[in-house]
Amino acid sequence: MNNQFVTYEIALKLKELGFKEPCFKAYFKYTLSSSDCTLIQLLSPLVEIYGENYLFNNNDDIFIDKSISGDGDGAKCTAPLWQQVIDYFREKHNLIIYVSTYQKNKHLFGVFTYGDKELTELSEWISSYEEARKSGIWKAIELINNK
Fold this sequence. Notes:
By secondary structure, this protein is an alpha+beta fold. It folds into 2 domains: 2-79, no CATH class; 82-145, Double Stranded RNA Binding Domain. It contains 4 helices and 6 strands. Strands 2-1-3 form a 3-stranded antiparallel β-sheet. A 3-stranded antiparallel β-sheet has the order 4-5-6. The longest helix is centred in the C-terminal third of the chain and has 17 residues, at 129-145. 24% of the residues are buried. Mean pLDDT is 81; it is low at 63-71.
């Protein structure tokens, strides 16, 4: 089920862009005391800490899960669903991201500026739908950063 959420790297960039939509999960970062290893976890809110039906938000103070042994920075950012991010770009930045499938292993993404008939960006063929979707989101992030 975790594959329904954007990657940690995309989630961090979205936070920098001002993404503040409520999310079912958040990315937490820990340094394990036993091995100097950094661990990034995609976690749901604990009922004991947050209560019932809680949704994470990038504005919140998100607490560290004390059940993990080590030092934690707590949540680094929320973890939105892929579709939630596509909707965010359309609603907040007037960018439409779409993925088109030609054959089983032929996908491409396009990014349009909402209201324009001109295509802002069109990819080459990509072998998986998921990679095309992720690439489209990265391209939208790049377009916003270059404004």
